[in-house]
Amino acid sequence: MKNILRYSIVFFFISTTTSYSQHVPLGQEKLVALLDQELSGESAKRNLEYISRLHRMRGSDDYNKAIAFILSKLSEYNLEGIEIIKIPANGQLMYGTEKSRPAWNASFAELWEQKPENGQWVNHEKIADWESIPMVLAQDSKSGEVSTELVDIGAGTSESVYQYKDVKGKLVLTSSQPGAVAPLAIEKYGAAGVISYAQNQPSAWHGENENLIRWGHFEYFDNTNSFGFMVSLKQARAFQKRLAAGEKIQLYAKVIADTEATDWQLLTAVIEGSDPSLSGEEILYTCHLDHPRPGANDNASGCVAILEVARTIKKLIDEGKLERPKRTLRFLWSPEIEGTNSLLGFKPELAAKTKFNIHMDMVGGGLETKGIYQISRGPKSLPSFINDIGEAFGEFLNQSSIAYTSGDAVNYPMVSQEGGKEPFHAILGNFHMGSDFEVFTEGTYRIPSIYLHQYPDRYIHTNYDLPAFIDPTVLKRSSFIGAVSGVYLADFGSENLEFLTSLMKKQVLSRSYQMLQFADALPVEEAENVKYYFWLQEMEAFQSLEPYVSLSESQMEDYRSYLEQLKGVVGAGTPVETTEPNASLIYYRNPEIKGGMFAFGYDYFTDNFGKEKPRPQLFTYKGIRGTGSEYTYETLNLVNGKNSISDIRNILSAEFGPVPLSLVQSYLEALESIKVIFKNPVKIEKK
């Protein structure tokens, strides 16, 4: 009876506070009207069509061409402070926990099947061609040339395969990524190269399209002196059928590619803030520019969306329709994660100025991609009011787009003439990893972020991630959320507090209902733990306003009282108690080691812990809402000189699902062994 009562109360509150289609959140109707009129999904898609022509691998010639193109558009749009930041990358330089990778360029790659003719093998049928589809060549392949037979090794990651397969000097056909089989197939058993048909990320459409060619790669720091080709599942099955019948398949492969030290180019521009006392604070828009061609949704879409935000806001300011925001808006284009990591290590003053981050990665996919749009919040280790802002404008689009699709009169339809008219249906409020925003929200920098993305997308990381599947309406809606959220944050002050407090109260109601659904599926002790940390983090989110507004004691008490009333209905909860030895131990971050443990291309943890040692089991743990990557990421985030091991375990369990304390403790001990954390504060002498 109690459960029915509390669910009814919460559902009543939710249903009476979120069923709107015309209501503009946070009193921003003028800004929303201006953005609806000026934002152009068509303009964004035209820019995307150019960028998608380029094979934009980190630091490569095509990556630099994309930088030059965006720079030209920024100049055309009259942006300010346009700058190319050059970061040396030679395979040895460290920026925080990131080791720089040199540029990788390829100029030629072809794979042929050969047939005997007049006593010698001659090229008969072309299988793969860099010029046509650059994705056929695995990233970080080296130059090479060979004429040899093909051997099927299946997954190829087990020693047992090579006990009855002679691969020396031959090309191996594998279902694994080239980098995964290289240590055995190439380094130990002497294969000449890899032909991979590794499949795309699992989804409901996994394996259905036999023509997809997946992005492949070697691990740069393994220094594999070989090459890999990526082929479709259709091609691989044809090879396998012939090999199983006892036929010999002779292939010819030639690759011209290499890596070289370079300066990574990161492009940035600003719209200067108008308030002298606030212009030094920045709202940072980010995306990642690097990706194999075509990479339309991933992530030319994010690149052109923030470019469209920059164009629109600057044009509205120049035309006198919009006042220049008080804080500075900054826009950044860089290589994914490793570029952002390196930048914050290379220019720490940028992190110091950045107050909020709005990140876009895969924000333009139409119906064909089957992409699920998400407006994700930061981790629970970083409660912030920014989450409510992004979600409020996302919910506004959800409701207004449904009304528009249904034929209702809608003030701000937020559609493009060349785009679709479907409902938005964004999922709000989850936490996801996998892109640059996690660099900002990591415990070193603690910069609150909004993460806009579509996942899953059935064409991600394949040759079918095409401009044809990009919808200008989705690009416009993504640009809208970014633009309205950024301008609101740039102008945020005490005059906005009443609107925002009211919104946050409504959002707590919605989240409390979701929290109850999660908690009620858990054992009683763990359910109480979820409730306890839910209320604690909701209060911390409200307190995150303090650097930006003057919160009076009565305002704090009003919000605290509001949460207490809800606790009376939902339950206050209690943390899980433990008698485990050392559970009360508190760790501190080493202030000299800045950044997370893992990024694309480099694994700081493994490099320092050692490949020969078994990794802590937390890496492979799977909870109800999270996997090892989330648990390990948040574990380090929660090391702050205040949380004990049991505190960290309990917060992780409330966020991702129950986790054994022993797994958390063993990972913390591993971090201590490589001096990322210490049991006592570390004093760093000034140099």
Low-confidence stretches: 12-20
What characterizes the major β-sheet?
8 strands, mixed
Overall shape: it is globular
Please state how the strands of the largest beta sheet are arranged side by side. Answer: 1-11-13-12-14-17-15-16
Helical residues, percent:
25-40%
Report the portion of residues in β strands. Answer: 15-25%
What is the CATH superfamily label of the largest domain?
Zn peptidases
Structural class of the helix and strand makeup? Answer: alpha/beta
Q: C-alpha Rg, in Å?
A: 26 Å
CATH architectural grouping of the largest domain: 3-Layer(aba) Sandwich
What is the helix tally? Answer: 19
From the 3D structure, determine the CATH topology of the largest domain. Aminopeptidase
Give the strand tally: 21
What oligomerization state is this entry in? single chain
What is the average per-residue confidence, as pLDDT, rounded to a whole number?
94
How many separate structural domains?
Answer: 4
Which class of the largest domain in CATH terms?
A: Alpha Beta
Gap between N and C termini: 65 Å
Keywords:
globular; Aminopeptidase; eight-stranded mixed β-sheet; seven-stranded mixed β-sheet; 19 helices; alpha/beta; Glucose Oxidase, domain 1; 687 residues; single chain
Structure in a nutshell:
With 687 residues, this protein is of the alpha/beta class. The protein folds into four domains: 12-100 and 262-492, Zn peptidases (Aminopeptidase, 3-Layer(aba) Sandwich), CATH 3.40.630; 103-260, 3-Layer(bba) Sandwich (Glucose Oxidase, domain 1); 495-570; 588-678, no CATH class. Helix content is 38%, strand content 18%.
